[in-house]
Hints:
The chain has 388 residues and is α+β, with helices and mostly antiparallel strands.
Amino acid sequence: MKARLLVIDDEAMVRDSMVAYLEDSGYQVLSASNGADGINSLREQESDLVLCDLRMPNLDGIQVISQIKENWPHIPVIVVSGAGVMDDVVQALRLGASDYLVKPIIDLAVLEHSVKRNLELVALERQNQSYRQHLETVNRELRAGLEELRSDQQAGRQIQMKMLPEFTDVGDFSFRHIIKPSLLLSGDFLDYFPLDEKHFGFYIADVSGHGASSAFVTVLLKNLTYRLKRNLKRGSSDDLFYPVKVLQRMNEELLNTGFGKHLTIVYGVLDTQTGALDYSVGAHFPMPVLMQGGKAEYLPGSGMPVGLFKDAEYQAYQLQLPQEFSLHLFSDGVLEVIPEKSLSAKEKYLLNLIEREEGIHDRIIESLDLKSETDVPDDIALMTVFRK
């Protein structure tokens, strides 16, 4: 589409020559012999660019430019005037004129170049404005989406925290825990629950990845243990008493979901009357730490990840807990906040820390700075089982 130009000049010869040249250059050109007619022409039919003389009777160029910038600020104005009115030219440029050409214009190609350049600048400005408006729209939608996502994650976090058990004391045994997520939602999870009058089941799990998808697997774990507890109560299944069976069930269910998620886990069954502990390990690291007689050491055990291999095999381990002890289960995120560089040094540091804090749950939390507002690179979970 041809650009529409308006030439305002009281000198007919100058005006006609510019009109003829610009029409030959492919533009649609309107003309006016004075400022008032030029303003009326813009009101009737808006132009894309105005060329305006400064010295005209009645309504001079300065007044014309002032009215154009007041009513049509997006229209570029090129001043075309004699060399003897430089003060007026400066004033015109201050009012917003885009360019200045000196009459007489010997080479009208200079006029065409100025017109073309200013029209390109206007087109570019319109593109930029359109792009800015698009970005503002996208940003508004993005902010709304992020706010909705944040709200959903906060709701999910509340649900996830409500799924965690309450601190429990049963006989001489106590269960304590803490989870510090790296995001609003955690891929770490833990639980402990009575199986009958003397047995307690408990586990700590670390789901691969972070965020909502990993947190959803923790809901699956909670749901599975709930169903197994319901089956135990009905007498249809006693799988919860057998750690190997529990890991096999978890492995099967996680593979069936098709989430592409796997987890590491330690599941144990504690006899609160005899102190016997049965447990099984699904590739969890670090292993639980047993603190007794002032000495901390990792429990033995190994096994395949849960939810990764169809034919994964798990082993049963047994341990007789001493009369006074504390058992500490961590997710691997704890190693990320330990200052040592090598893995073996981190493992040793964790043992020394537990010994230094005498296996006391709250002191270990404080020493690892797990209650601060500091961001952590990975989810961190800690469960402590103790008898004193």
